[in-house]
Design goal:
Chain lengths: 294, 260
């Protein structure tokens, strides 16, 4: 039983979690101690034991660094104990973020694949378009996001779409780069073979380039879906009235609700993990059907 | 007398590289008749693969003329006049063996029924029946190369171009495949152009051996080799076989001598 735990992933992951937790609690005590001393002073409590001090640092209302326990309690409260329809529910905010993320991911990956196909087949586009694709990612998204929201607002495009556009803006890039690499991955021999059959460009694309690009595509899609979530959260910082993890982060930072911020961060990370894992599952199913070595 | 299948006259091909021009082929003239098994043999850099690629329209000659069945190589390629077997099997890893053999048939628009029938025949021809649903990595190197031969023959071209198809295999497998290839040639009556750097392989398989020499790549000697079509591996012990092999070896040495 114990050996199987060691050989599997479970025990190592648990051990790492435990180590992180220990350091986290020490960090909370250290970072929150000054504030706790001040609190004692303000309450007129001149003398206190170290135990009292430590206990205080771990249960502040607005700590500099909340403890994992406080974050979990907040998550429990906002995910499980609050009705999903309430604006205080992280499930509600999560669903807002996820829907924009998925729409943005869909647009971004379609755009990315389309661009890759064009770039691979039209030489002039390779030279003229690719530098712009790269340049698009050098602009800080946090600066660009409000512009996109404002401009789209001007055309009365509001709600989900502007956020999805920003998510797509971040996610198309890895897909384009990966797909271009994938479509170009067939070796000269595999291409010569198609020439000996005098296959058309379309047949070569469909029967050689596309299947050869699949492993590259899935790697990019995993990066793309995570980038899409980041893009959505950034967009929500700008458009906080619609809710979402970004709005939750923004609200938390207005009122110094550090526990709320950390809980939203954890929930966002968990969502990203689930999305990346889902792409991974599809990846495994498809590669298996395509005869990959187990 | 019918037209030769391949008529090459005064072919030259020069590759421009950063280190100056490389004369891959220089004044190569060669006729190949229907039903012949012609081996191109020579040290690396003698242009034997380049000549095969010119026949297949994968390279363009700088000078000279070449006809395949009276057509240019380009027209012949568009008419799918030949099947090409590469050094490596070049099977697509995402296709099963059956699907790999069906690849040219799909591209050439054969019906599903016809495809299935031809795949079945092809697998039978190279003794791979039962491996249709396997993926390439599940087969040995020799089996993969046999599958690639079945793929080249699936659309029944009259001309088979083979570029060191057994070069990467060990000698035991190579002997076996040589014998099978000979049976296949006997059965199908195809014209074969076969690139190799193995003297016994060339002598065992061919009706005609073209000895090539490098820098610039040109034909040094053409040796006729008329053993009966139903020869077996035992023939390699006979004085006649050893005699031809010696002539080939002699030719290779002469072609190469100025390098030493």
């Amino acid at each position: 039983m114990l050996t199987s735990l060691w050989q599997g992933k479970t025990l190592p992951v648990l051990v790492v979690c435990a180590i992180i937790a220990v350091f986290w609690y020490l960090g909370s005590i250290w970072l929150n101690a000054d504030m706790q001393r001040m609190l004692f002073e303000n309450n007129g409590q001149a003398s206190y034991t170290t135990a009292e001090l430590i206990e205080g640092t771990l249960s502040q209302e607005k700590p500099k660094l909340p403890t994992p326990g406080q974050i979990l309690a907040e998550l429990n409260k906002t995910v499980l104990e609050t009705a999903p329809t309430s604006k205080r529910s992280l499930v509600y905010h999560g669903s807002v973020t996820i829907s924009a993320t998925l729409l943005g991911f869909l647009i971004g990956s379609m755009l990315g694949m389309g661009l890759a196909i064009l770039v691979v087949h039209i030489k002039s586009l390779d030279r003229s378009l690719m530098p712009w694709v790269v340049a698009s990612q050098t602009i800080p998204i946090i600066a660009l996001a409000p512009m996109i929201v404002v401009i789209m607002n001007q055309f009365e495009v509001t709600g989900l779409i502007p956020k999805a556009v920003i998510a797509a803006y971040l996610s198309f890039f890895p897909v384009t780069v990966g797909m271009v690499k994938g479509l170009r991955s067939p070796d000269p021999l595999q291409l010569d073979l198609m020439r000996t059959y005098s296959a058309s460009q379309w047949q070569t694309f469909l029967k050689l380039r596309v299947p050869a690009s699949v492993p590259y595509l899935f790697t990019s899609l995993k990066v793309g879906v995570a980038a899409s979530l980041v893009g959505t959260v950034v967009a929500e910082l700008t458009k906080s009235e619609d809710g979402g993890f970004g709005a939750r982060l923004l609200g938390g930072s207005y009122y110094g609700q550090t526990i709320q911020i950390w809980a939203a961060l954890f929930a966002a990370a968990a969502c990203a993990w689930v999305l990346v894992s889902l792409v991974g599952v599809v990846d495994r199913v498809v590669t298996k059907a395509m005869g990959a070595r187990p | 007398m019918s037209h030769p299948v391949i008529e090459a006259s005064h072919l030259s091909l020069t590759f421009e590289t950063n280190d100056g021009p490389v004369h891959a082929l220089s004044d190569v003239s060669l006729d190949i008749q229907k039903g012949e098994f012609v081996s191109l043999i020579g040290p690396s850099g003698c242009g034997k693969t380049t000549l095969l690629r010119v026949i297949a329209d994968l390279e363009q000659p700088s000078e000279g003329e070449i006809n395949i069945n009276g057509m240019s190589p380009h027209e012949a390629r568009l008419k799918r006049a030949y099947g090409y077997v590469f050094q490596a099997p070049a099977l697509y890893p995402w296709r099963t063996i059956g699907k790999n053999i069906a690849l040219p048939l799909e591209i050439m628009g054969y019906s599903k029924v016809e495809q299935a029938e031809r795949v079945r025949k092809g697998l039978d021809l190279v003794n791979l029946t039962g491996f249709e649903k396997k993926f390439p990595w599940q087969l040995s190197g020799g089996m993969q190369q046999r599958a690639s031969i079945a793929r080249a023959l699936s659309f029944d071209p009259d001309l088979l171009l083979m570029d060191e198809p057994f070069g990467a295999l060990d000698e035991i497998v190579r002997d076996k495949l040589n014998e099978q290839l000979l049976r296949l040639w006997e059965m199908t009556q195809k014209t074969v152009v076969f690139v190799t750097h193995s003297i016994p392989e060339a002598v065992f398989l061919s009706t005609k051996i073209v000895v090539m020499s490098p820098r610039p790549g040109k034909i040094h000697d053409i040796i006729t080799c008329d053993f009966p079509r139903d020869r077996t591996l035992d023939i390699r012990e006979t004085p006649e076989f050893i005699d031809v092999a010696n002539r080939v070896r002699q030719g290779l040495r002469e072609g190469h001598s100025y390098v030493d």
